[in-house]
Amino acid sequence: MLEWILRGLGQGRITTRYPAKPEPPPAGYHGSIDVLDTKNAPSTLQLVCPTGAISVDQQGDLDLDRGRCILCGECVRRAPERFAFRSRYETASRSRAALVIDGQDHQPLQQTREALGEQARMLRRSIHVRHIDCGSDGSEEWEIQALWNPYYDIQRLGYFLTNAPRHADILLVTGGVTNPMHSPLQRTWEVMPDPKALIAVGTDACSGGLAAGSGLTGGGVDTVLPVDVYVPGSPPAPIAIMHSLLLATGVIADSKVAA
Amino acid sequence: MSPLRSTEIAAAELPGYERLGASIEPAPAGEVRLRVGAPAFAGAARVMQEGGARFVSMFLADTPERSLIAAFALRGELILVRAPTGPDAVFESVGRWWPAASWPERELAELHDVNFRGEDHIYRSRLTAPDADFVGREVSGLDVFSIPYGPVRSGIFEAIQFHIETGGEDVPRIHTRPFFKHRGMEARFQGLAPDAAVHVAERVAGIASCAYASCFSQAVERALGIQAPQRAERWRAVYCELERMACHLDVIAKEAETTALYVGQARFQILKEQIMRLRARLTGNRFGRGMILPGGVRGEGMMSLDEVLAALDVFERELRRDRRMFLGTTSMTDRLVGSGHLERRLVEEYGAVGPLARGSGLSTDARHERPYGNYTRLGLRVVSERDADAMARVKVRFGELSESLRILRQTIDHLRRRDGDLQTQLDSTAGAACGWVEAPQGELVMWVELTQGTVRRVHIASPSLRNWALFDHAFPKDVLTDFAFIEHSFGLTPAGADR
Predict the structure, then answer these.
(1) Predicted ipTM?
(2) Model confidence, pTM
(3) Which residues of B26-63 are buried (b: 16+ CB within 10 A; e: fewer)?
(4) B241-292 confidence digits (pLDDT tens)
(5) Across the interface, do B159 and A133 touch by the CB < 8 Å criterion?
(6) Mutation test of the interface with chain A: which of B125, B156, B209, choosing the one with the most A Cβ atoms within 10 A?
């Protein structure tokens, strides 16, 4: 056992300092898609996207709904003058409408990283998180599990995993909600004590993603329950999910103040 | 028609073959297609079983006509037995005497109204639209109770349900109920062009994206009679082996977690994260998505090959030390040795594949049985263990980590030595074929039909679904607290099983 302890100490600190310090993604990481030019777009561009995230109105103005985007890159390959991959992690948003972008990214970052970290401290570093899978492809679970690995170690910010929904403050939901998971999701949410927040993790949870429209899986978690934070991405990276947890903590902090 | 290949002759030599009245149809290399009438369908399956074949899957096809197809793996070939169906065609149940066929038959009967005579399932609930509150059967006896575990699991796991009947310690019976996550992914392929459909393939089982994308791409290529360029096949092997390593490390980290070996858990999580980050730098996506497509790959990796090799060297040094310590920690190995014993006979009956089958002494590995792509040019050491317990399955994964590193080095060396094309044009527009790869969870087979340049029908024979049926039998002498070890040693994904 001593050998393990020495082994554990041997490597020094590898844990990210996020949110106190920024954590830049590697160059070329496909974190989100930017729209470079929204004007005079041909309406055929809409057909390029397999999930219908791109829409062009009659004036030729172009919108991209990041809540539907699965980052497949079809638009970037077809129209590189209008779309580009952007290397970034912090894609989460507290409103669904803010994920729809028309033009350069002027989605206001609701709060700065430092302010988010401050909120986590305000709640005395004791936030319990519960996860429920409602039809993901399995990759979102890996990225959520990664938050508790030594690279991200979200326990240092005071986030703990709980198995009992009755102890949970935040519910992470993955998948677009398949029919058999409807009632387990509702029941899990109902037994959680107030104040509580719900995070839709991944494009499937935000809008149903690629699987939507089959009649077997719904169009996202917000068709069943109110969502507080959306994290698009297929799947979102651990830092993106960490960012969403910090945003959700803000939701809880706000409602505590209100109460 | 071309002269009979040796295996077709071998098929003709199966005892009872002449009774079938089967006719041989043209097929791409590696497949043998036999056509029988609906009444002879179950008999053909019996002949296959007696000939030593492994059941792969059963599905509906539309090419060349509406038919029920059963796929078997036999002597390095995939044998497809096809029987045309009509509105009133009735098939004798195969699952009644061959457990591997039981779930596929139930799925066909529930989702596609195929009539099977004599099919009998002990649980009367629907398989493909499970009800979380359904209690299959009442249990009785002193202190015996039934625990429905799932679909909301403890911890961050995918949705699946287990009905565990226990007196507190012994587990006399477990019943696995998948399909809580059935998203209709097979139907999602329909009408898409192959290069758009590959995005769907990547999202069937997210943790095995590259394997699913390769499998779909190879099926399309075989259906259209083309081949991806060598360099593209090598890149595919690089992505698939990195994926295998990430999946195996995930299983080992979870085994360490359940034995409360937390430093070990952290160490293997670090190794897994290193592979995820390597993939993010190489492909722009932590799961290697977006690189593989029918006809080849989209581009070169985004790192230089020397950088990849250097990263692998660092990784391997760390892995060696951690493996030695892990296998030498008796508090850990004691929990795994002897847990979840799966007899070889059972594994064969259920047609199990992957590390699970190889942990019970079998040597099934699609890369070795029916080499494809880059693996036709590589020697593969199939890692197999005989102890048939959770420890054997972990050892198989350790062995495969080393083998993956060897394959990666060799393939990267080939990539460095010569340049080449990355894509072949898809020039024809119609055809149907099977593709296969060895996914981290086991052999994955896909049946793909194309007409007019778009996908018409896809069937996915996922390793997770085929292996999960065996979970009901994985507790011969084990107690309730062994549950987590045994489940993790299977290393399966519900997303792949439910599709």
Answers:
(1) 0.88
(2) 0.91
(3) ebbebbbbbbbebebbbbbbbbbbebebbbbbbbbbeb
(4) 999 999 999 999 999 988 888 888 888 999 999 999 999 999 999 999 999 9
(5) yes
(6) B156
